[in-house]
Amino acid sequence: MEQHDDSPATPKDATQATDEQRREQDKLDHQNDDPDAPAGWQTHHQIPDEN
Fold first, then answer.
1. Taking the CB of residue 11, how many other CB atoms lie within 10 A of it?
2. CA-to-CA distance for 15 and 46, rounded, in angstroms?
């Protein structure tokens, strides 16, 4: 039986993320982004309070 090693790369310093881990985290961080959303690029400080 053949074994396949599909595990992620191990960094030299385990406290540092690998490039593969950074790309995956970037995808996860931005998975719900909508570039066409109104005021999507603004922070809560830039949006007027309408109370």
1. 13
2. 36
d(CA 40, CA 33) in angstroms, rounded, equals: 8
pTM summary value: 0.43
Q: What is the distance between the alpha carbons of residues 51 and 16, in angstroms, rounded to a whole number? A: 45
**What confidence tens digit (pLDDT) does each residue in 1-51 have?**
566 666 666 667 778 888 999 999 988 887 777 778 776 777 778 877 776
What whole-number distance in Å separates Cα of residue 50 and Cα of residue 36? 22
Q: Which two tokens stand for residue 10?
A: 């191990």
CA distances from 12 to 32, 38, 47, 51 (A): 32, 43, 44, 52
